[in-house]
Design goal:
The complex is a heterodimer of chains A (365) and B (416). Chain A is an alpha+beta fold and 365 residues long. Helix content of chain A is 23%, strand content 36%. In chain A, helix 2 packs parallel to helix 4 and helix 3 crosses helix 4. The longest helix of chain A is centred in the middle third of the chain and has 18 residues. Chain A starts with 7 loop residues before the first strand and ends with a strand. Chain B has 416 residues and is an all-alpha fold. Chain B folds into 3 domains: 40 residues, no CATH class; 94 residues, no CATH class; 221 residues, MetI-like (MetI-like fold), CATH 1.10.3720. Helix content of chain B is 68%, strand content 1%. A two-stranded antiparallel sheet of chain B has the order 1-2. The longest helix of chain B has 40 residues. The radius of gyration of chain B is 31 Å and the shape is flat. The model of chain B has no long low-confidence stretch (mean pLDDT 88). The chains are: A alpha+beta (365), B mainly alpha (416). At the A-B interface, strand 6 and helix 2 of A face helix 15 and helix 16 of B.
């Protein structure tokens, strides 16, 4: 991060939230978002990510702690004075107004003049390529079109911060991928700060500058997508982001940044210790399916090899997905690229698989 | 496939429309069969009696059947010339028969409706009709000089029509003359139009009060969590578990001069003990009691519509900079309009035909059309006029319905 950006634009300081006084939905949250960042809050439902977004928007109040916007505490500022744009899960386009009236609404309540309103509405609609739809009703639009209008409406009054609450959840896969690109593109072009909530990890990885993984009211890891995927800091993140193979065992020794782990099957493997500290600790070893190799010619020197039995071969077009039994684990998945010389494994055969020790991460049990 | 006219054909060459109708026939027939018992029940006990009763508002064959000769003799008389001797003779002949058959009372009642004061004229004349000798006109006038008055004959002419607009005309405070022209009733006898107006006024005010009181409750119920809103819903429905009569009489205990409300007013110094408010046996009483009784009919449709308005709309409006009031007025309220339409229409139509409450707490100026219909059904036994009043009201309600459809749109209404 550049020096000028170290001052956070949005900041959560020790924020806690409880709805019933018995359970904390958000536990001691600290988070700083610099200006212009696209930050995604990712997590399973009930992890507290939407609650955080609603507190930022002002629809929920923090039970404890402070939320700062551009250095100013906003806990006591009502939502309509925060000047934060928001895109809702089901778009929340007003059904009794036309597209133009929907976009004009935030400008009207801000007392913009008529001509200025029209110019801004037109510009916002052109931005999402929906200029021809100004006099339609929301019900006459497809899901993707509604999504664009919702986006334009959140941007039309030129807020510096835009919140998005699972905005692509209702779209089909192709449209979703297209919109993912368009939203990030627009956000970067306009230089706005975006806080984006989703439970779809692909969406989080493809769109964000940084991803905050939520679970159980706590941020488990906050990092850029590549770091999150390649270096998960705990087994929740490893499991939640991407596909992941897990082998359980006990740490034997840790030396020179390498942990020797005895798997429950008795096999010994070398791993990279992430959050294990001493011998005798139970650990979950995590290996990404695409980092496992079985082609003898491609097994590099220094790799660890284990015996495996092929259980199932699934042809998926671009890749092959093979399910193996490795060290007593029947759900061990490997993914291989559909290259011309790639071997298609047949169920029942015994093979030898291997991986680089640094791709194999010893995490908390 | 298409035929020459361009309509689609099924594979076997029959027009697709007919093919579809054939394939749908069985399921349609089944659906109709399921609804048939109810349909038959409604036709027999609801539609037919109503239509039959409404027919009485324009059909009255009593005079024509009981006084056949007179009716025939008057058929060609246009009321502008003096009654003829022939008519008088026929009248005397009919009166003799009517006296003998003891039907003279019915005849007298019928003519009396057209011209009050003629009842005794008929019964008196009928007693002596047997002894009358020609020329009959002179004999009649000798018996009672009212027979010289052409109005008496006009009344009979009007009564002799089998299909007559007389009752509907009467329901609108007008009367029909013998030549078929329609004039207003004399001022002291105009009661119905005023009563219709009052019925409309009461119904309209009750609807407004229900809306003002019901909207916030429905809003509250729609925004509370399910458990609490269910509890409130039960409280709203609670009055339905009590008889209408009990609820109405409870208001008497509450509102009468020595009742709970007035006692409280005196305690808090809002009224003096000698000069208590008259809250009941007048229009105020009708308004208060009816508003209370009809309130659930406003709340329920409002609630069911409001429940479907996602909270994200108001949130979206606020996030865009709208104050609480703007968000409500510009975003929430327009979406609750279908509920207002349904609730208002329901309350208004129920109110317009309300009977028991105005009868019990309405006093003189809190009476409605239904009360005078009841009067004609049970006291004056003028069923024809009662039917006519009902018909006028029905037509009026249908007109309002039509206006509502044009202004708000019936599709816009949601009952749940």
């Amino acid at each position: 991060m550049a020096e000028a950006q170290t001052k956070a634009f949005v900041e959560f300081q020790r924020v806690q939230k409880s709805y019933d006084g018995e359970v904390l939905v958000v536990k001691d949250l600290n988070l700083a978002i610099p200006r212009g960042e696209f930050l995604t809050m990712l997590g399973p439902s009930g992890s507290g990510k939407t609650t955080c977004l609603m507190m930022l928007a002002g629809f929920e109040t923090a039970t404890h702690g402070e939320i700062l916007l551009d250095g100013k505490p906003i806990n006591n500022i009502p939502p309509h004075k925060r000047g934060i744009g928001m895109v809702f899960q089901n778009y929340a386009l007003f059904p009794h107004m036309t597209v133009g009236e929907n976009l004009s609404f935030p400008l009207e309540v801000r007392k913009f003049g008529r001509s200025e309103r029209e110019a801004k509405v037109k510009r916002a609609l052109d931005m999402v390529e929906m200029g021809d739809f100004i006099s339609r009703r929301p019900a006459q639009l497809s899901g993707g079109q509604q999504q664009r209008i919702a986006l334009a409406r959140a941007l039309v009054f030129e807020p510096e911060l835009v919140l998005m609450d699972e905005p692509l959840g209702a779209l089909d896969k192709q449209l979703r991928e297209k919109m993912q690109f368009e939203i990030t593109d627009l956000a970067h072009k306009l230089g706005i700060t975006v806080v984006y909530v989703t439970h779809d990890q692909t969406e989080a990885l493809t769109m964000s500058d940084r991803v905050a993984v939520f679970n159980d009211g706590v941020i488990q890891q906050i990092a850029p997508p590549d770091e999150l995927y390649e270096s998960p800091e705990n087994s929740f993140v490893a499991q939640f982001i991407g596909e992941n193979n897990t082998l359980e065992g006990v740490v034997k020794e840790i030396k020179d940044g390498v942990a020797l782990v005895e798997l429950d099957s008795g096999d010994l493997i070398d791993c990279k210790p992430i959050n294990v500290s001493k011998p005798g600790e139970r650990t979950r070893v995590s290996i990404r399916p695409e980092r496992v190799e079985y082609n003898k010619d491609r097994l590099q020197k220094g790799v660890h090899t284990l015996q495996a039995e092929v259980l199932e071969f699934i042809y998926m077009g671009d890749i092959f997905r093979t399910r193996l039994r490795v060290a007593g684990n029947d759900e061990f998945i490997i993914k291989t690229r559909n290259a011309p010389d790639q071997v298609r494994l047949t169920p029942g055969t015994q093979i030898e698989i291997g991986w680089m020790p640094e791709d194999c991460r010893a995490l908390d049990a | 496939m298409m035929d020459s006219s361009g309509s689609l054909l099924a594979v076997d060459g029959t027009p697709l429309k007919r093919k579809l109708a054939q394939s749908m026939f069985r399921s349609r027939a089944r659906a109709f069969g399921l609804a048939l018992p109810l349909l038959a029940f409604i036709i027999v006990v609801f539609v037919y009696p109503i239509l039959d009763f409404l027919r009485q508002s324009v059909y009255d064959a009593r005079f024509a059947t009981l006084m056949p000769a007179t009716s025939e003799a008057m058929a060609d008389w246009d009321g502008s010339t003096a009654p003829t001797e022939e008519m008088a003779a026929a009248l005397v002949a009919d009166l003799v028969v009517a006296k003998k058959e003891k039907t003279i009372g019915k005849v007298a009642t019928r003519v009396n409706r057209e011209l009050s004061g003629t009842r005794s004229l008929f019964t008196k004349t009928a007693r002596n009709a047997k002894k009358m000798k020609p020329p009959y006109m002179e004999a009649l006038i000798k018996k009672d000089k009212d027979w010289a008055d052409i109005e008496t004959w006009h009344a009979m002419k009007t009564a002799s029509r089998v299909y007559t607009p007389a009752y509907i005309v009467a329901a609108l405070d007008r009367k029909m003359l013998a030549d078929g022209s329609i004039v207003q009733q004399s001022e002291e006898r105009r009661i119905h139009v005023q009563l219709f107006a009052r019925t409309m006024e009461i119904s309209f005010l009750v609807t407004i009060f229900c809306l003002i009181l019901g909207y916030p409750i429905a809003f509250l119920m729609a925004s509370l969590p399910l458990r609490t809103s269910n509890l409130l819903l039960i409280l709203v429905l609670l009055p339905f578990w009590t008889s209408l009569l009990v609820r109405t009489t409870a208001w008497i205990a509450m509102l009468q001069a020595q009742g709970v409300m007035n006692d409280l007013f005196v305690v808090f110094g809002l009224a003096t003990d000698e000069d208590r408010f008259s809250l009941i046996y007048n229009k105020t009483g009708t308004l208060i009691a009816m508003t209370h009784i009809l309130l659930p009919f406003m709340i329920l449709p409002l609630f069911s519509v409001m429940k479907t308005i996602p909270p994200s709309y108001v949130r979206a409006a606020k996030s865009m900079g709208a104050t609480d009031w703007t968000a409500f007025w510009r975003v929430y309220f327009p979406q609750s309009v279908p509920g207002i339409g349904a609730g208002a229409l329901l309350v208004f139509i129920l109110a317009i035909g309300y009977y028991i409450t105005p009868a019990l707490v309405g006093g003189q100026d809190g009476q409605m059309v239904s009360n005078i219909i009841d009067f004609h059904m049970r006291k004056s036994l003028n069923w024809n006029l009662a039917a006519a009043l009902g018909l006028v009201m029905l037509v009026f309600v249908m007109f309002l319905f039509w206006v509502y459809d044009r202004v708000v749109g019936i599709d816009n209404m949601k009952l749940g």
